[in-house]
């Protein structure tokens, strides 16, 4: 699976959009981008995934660049409950396992 | 409605005393995973079951074993816990069909302390 690079931490004001970047410059054509988050003292939670098109669900939007070498997770209106570590993971669709990298610690502030 | 349930949430054991952590699921998923997460680190996969097929990660110590008696339950056995095994242990499940098979559902974890 391709390696990902994320900033270790970010701050965001409550009510504003949180934009979390992820670099995956070695991504292969059959690898998907997955995002999970982990709120303190809880298990990770799936957020969204995509291959090359932008994706949106009730939690977030995923923007993948045309060359697929980077992506951005967008939380449109961050709340204090969105404070968590966000993990960007790249993997082949057929593979069962996830390999977690360092993640970004997002702090949403009032 | 908890779908992946881990018991207990907190477990204290003594150095060298065997301990078992349990995980159950109501999702009827084929795959069950065990992760170890030490403080301020990312979760690290120990092993997983695809149905009854056990898949061990290459760097998982022999001290860690697992059992899956049926689809719903999976156990993590630590035969002789050391101080370095103090961590959060996370159980997860995923289905086996299509792209959604790669979405893992995690339990809340069991925090293990070793005295």
Percentage of residues in helical conformation of chain A:
under 10%
Rg from Cα of chain A: 13 Å
Biggest β-sheet strands, sense, barrel of chain B: 7 strands, mixed
Residue runs with pLDDT of under 50 for 5 or more positions of chain A: none
Instruction: Output the radius of gyration of chain B.
Output: 13 Å
DSSP E strands of chain A, number: 9
Task: Work out the helicity level of chain B.
Answer: under 10%
Briefly note the structural class of the backbone of chain B.
Answer: mainly beta
Task: Give me the secondary-structure topology.
The complex is a heterodimer of chains A (110) and B (115).
Chain A: E1 9-13, E2 18-23, E3 31-38, E4 45-50, E5 55-56, E6 61-64, E7 70-75, E8 84-92, E9 104-109
Parallel strand pairs in A: 1-9
Antiparallel strand pairs in A: 2-7, 3-4, 3-8, 5-6, 6-7, 8-9
Chain B: E1 4-7, E2 10-13, E3 19-25, E4 31-37, E5 44-50, E6 53-56, E7 64-67, E8 73-78, E9 87-94, E10 105-106, E11 110-114
Parallel strand pairs in B: 2-11
Antiparallel strand pairs in B: 1-3, 3-8, 4-5, 4-9, 5-6, 7-8, 9-10, 9-11
Describe the structure.
The complex is a heterodimer of chains A (110) and B (115). Chain A is mainly β and 110 residues long. Chain A contains no helices and nine strands. Chain A starts with 8 loop residues before the first strand and ends with a strand. The mean pLDDT of chain A is 93. Chain B has 115 residues and is an all-beta fold. Chain B contains no helices and eleven strands. In chain B, the strands form two sheets. In chain B, strands 2, 4, 5, 6, 9, 10 and 11 form a seven-stranded mixed beta sheet that branches. In chain B, strands 1-3-8-7 form a four-stranded antiparallel beta sheet, with no helix packed on it. Chain B is globular. At the A-B interface, β3 and β4 of A face β5, β9 and β10 of B.
């Amino acid at each position: 699976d391709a390696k990902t690079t994320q900033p270790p931490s970010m701050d965001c004001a409550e009510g504003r959009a949180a934009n979390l970047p992820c670099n995956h410059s070695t991504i292969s054509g059959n690898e998907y981008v997955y995002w999970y988050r982990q709120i303190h003292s809880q298990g990770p939670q799936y957020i969204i995934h995509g291959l090359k098109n932008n994706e949106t669900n009730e939690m977030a939007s995923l923007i993948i660049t045309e060359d697929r070498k980077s992506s951005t997770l967008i939380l449109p209106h961050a709340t204090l409950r969105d404070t968590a570590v966000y993990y960007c993971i790249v993997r082949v669709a057929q593979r069962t396992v996830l390999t977690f990298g360092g993640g970004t610690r997002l702090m949403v502030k009032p | 409605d908890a779908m992946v349930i881990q018991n207990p949430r907190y477990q204290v054991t003594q150095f060298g005393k065997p301990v078992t952590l349990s995980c159950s699921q109501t999702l009827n998923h084929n795959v069950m995973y065990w992760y170890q997460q030490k403080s301020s680190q990312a979760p690290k996969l120990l092993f997983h079951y695809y149905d009854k097929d056990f898949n061990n990660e290459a760097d998982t110590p022999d001290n860690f074993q697992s059992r899956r008696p049926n689809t719903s339950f999976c156990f993590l056995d630590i035969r002789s816990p050391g101080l370095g095994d103090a961590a959060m242990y996370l159980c997860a499940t995923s289905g086996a069909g299509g792209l959604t098979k790669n979405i893992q559902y995690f339990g809340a974890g069991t925090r293990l302390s070793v005295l």
